Amino acid sequence: MLTKEMKLQAFMKLRTENYRASLRLEGLTPRPTSTHKPASTTATLKTKHAR
Fold this sequence. Notes:
YhfG, 0% strand, DUF2559 family protein
């Protein structure tokens, strides 16, 4: 039996795939998804967007 968390993960994956397919149908090129991209930290975001 699927848990609520498993159902949510499956739904989010399907939603993302559908969104990317919709972009392709509209003639737009979606960005490649990277599962190995490290999460940005607050410090790196502050230095990146500092004025």
